[in-house]
Amino acid sequence: MKNTATFDRSVEDVGNILNLEHFNFTVPDQELASLFYVSGLGFTRDPYMDFATFNMWVNVGEQQFHLPKSDAQVFRGHVALIIPDHDGLKRRLEFVTRFMEGTKYSWESIGSHIQVKCPWGNTFRVYSPGGDHPYPMDLGIPYGEMVVAPGTTEGIARFYDEVFSTPANVVDDDDGKRAVVRMGYNQSFIFRESDEEIPEYDGHHIAIYVSNFSGPHRKLKESGKISEESDQHQYRFQSITDPATGTVVAELEHEVRSLHHPMKRRVLVNRNSAQTFGNYRAGRDMFIPT
Prior knowledge:
The chain has 4 helices and 16 strands. The protein is of the alpha+beta class. Strand 15 (234-241) and strand 16 (248-257) form a beta hairpin. The longest helix is centred in the first third of the chain and has 11 residues, at 30-40. The chain has helices spanning 30-40, 86-96, 153-163, 214-222; strands at residues 17-24, 44-45, 57-60, 63-66, 77-82, 106-110, 113-117, 123-127, 143-148, 168-173, 176-183, 187-193, 205-210, 226-231, 234-241, 248-257. 14% of the residues lie in helices and 33% in strands. The protein has an 8-stranded mixed beta sheet with strand order 2-3-4-1-13-16-15-14, with helices on one face.
């Protein structure tokens, strides 16, 4: 019998950007950062990369936060997180509250997510696995959403489509106007237009892996947009420019890595945050996706 089923095959497409690997925010206090990201959110300090007290890498599923010690950087928008067991998360967030006096730390349940602010004002929206979102992961960073000026999202979408050959489209509905950039099969980056005053860019960055490493580099170099030639496997750029006009439409440093980058093959260690000294059970130390 002939199979007459039809499918929208385009939803399976993965562009040149294969994943969003980490967010980098500088923090002035490593102890406070550890209390927030490790004790509060339940993430795992990377056990293999030791930076003493001047930096820490924190594992979140297959993604990370990099937190070098310096003046606080604040992302202009919010970062989404997927964390299982929200009851356990709430207990941890309540526990660390005592250490956060005098900071911008806060948390509250809002509909389908928990909204959390770090001690320096970075905003996170925490969802459950399989919840009201299209991101298939059990623990991780599914997207970042950054606010941008009105009238910029078409140019932002063109930039990622033409320079990075990755799917990007503009959505304009009851939830506002935004450019959605696909990053691999289970992540995205969202640029949302806002009429509110947007803080000046302070240098925070994201890291992405790409399959075609030289093509975007060539286009960025031709337009004078490479901000750092890091090494053989990595470069950086900061300005997002509309290819149609040459106008800079947003600022966000991207650390662009090739698939030959030595970090690409790292398997990140994630602990089971429900395991404590008081309820310890052998064999339950590691986070295991369900």
